[in-house]
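A quick aside before the break. I want you to see a complete sequence-to-structure record at least once, exactly as it would be stored in a machine-readable document. Don't worry about memorizing anything.
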Amino acid sequence: MTPIDFKRATSNEKPPAGLAPTLEALWWAAKGDWERAHKLVQGEASADAAWVHAYLHRVEGDLGNARYWYGEARQPEASGPLDAEWDGIAAALLARTRMA
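That is the input. The structure line, written in C-alpha cells, reads:
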C-alpha cells in the first residue's frame, strides 16, 4: 500500500485489513478517534509505536508527554503541522512494511 492509498483509505468506514497496530492507530487518528488510536499503541513496546504515541499526545496538546515518547521512539520532536507529521509517519511505517 502506498502512502496515498493509505490516506485515501481514511475515507472508508473501517481500516484496511491486516494493518499493523501502528498504522491502524494512525488510521483511527485520521478519523478523529484519538482514544481508539491511543489504545492501539499504548501497550506496544516498539520504537514505531512510541513514535505514533508521541504524535497522538502532540495532537492532544500534551507536549510534555509527546516529548517523552519522541525520546522513546528515538525521533526528533516534531513542531511542524500535524498533518505533515501524520503523512511522514505513515510513509515511514508503510515503507518498513514493504521491506519486511
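Two observations worth writing down. The mean pLDDT is 95. The longest helix spans residues 82-99. We'll return to this after the break.
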